[in-house]
């Protein structure tokens, strides 16, 4: 006759997991309360431009790509000193490296996820894992129209006929609208991603969105990013290991052959290389 299984170790693990979740929820709620109490009016564009000028002088060193250019952590630390909680991190959920770099210096920072309605299941799964495992606050940024409403108003599969218009409605406008609640946003743009990004500065004024923009990973390569993720066991989108070095919406993202431009799978066959968020 089989012996009954001792449930106490399993019960202890469940209790510990519940306690960790409760602690995280309490810390997140305390941060939100403090942030609301300490909220300050958004500074004017001229004031923010002055901060950008100071930041460029402090962080750029001898210039873009110079050996004395500030590290990613130094850029984030500068941003936290200058902007406090008025910071948003944009994350496509191709990986969680950028939130992992920012969160230790800005716990419970808002991480903006552009929920276009067209994401791979793996991308949504990565988003959920980040929310559960990292000390950040996920903010789902939604378009004004659902996919069904867009199909009704503009025709089915607009992404195939006019990808620029689709990106404008499902990415550019929602992000612009959301960013008006912050003074600074953080991106994971890297100079090695595309020729259009080769001159990306660490700190810049984002004229289109009317706020400060920092690119702390600008000097990193893809190998740097993957190395950081391996060293710190950072969450990665499984598609990165399945032929997708650059991950966007599912209908507009193809696998890339080894050795090809990492972004060549985005809008393949079309005269389009950017969604419009960073141009």
TrEMBL record:
Enzyme nomenclature, EC number: 1.8.4.10
Biased composition (Basic and acidic residues): 19-43
Cofactors: [4Fe-4S] cluster
Region feature Disordered, mapped onto this chain: 1-43
GO cellular component: cytoplasm
GO annotation terms (biological process): hydrogen sulfide biosynthetic process; sulfate assimilation, phosphoadenylyl sulfate reduction by phosphoadenylyl-sulfate reductase (thioredoxin)
Keywords: Cytoplasm, Iron, Iron-sulfur, Metal-binding, Oxidoreductase
Family: Belongs to the PAPS reductase family. CysH subfamily.
Protein name: Adenosine 5'-phosphosulfate reductase
Source organism per UniProt: Sanguibacter antarcticus
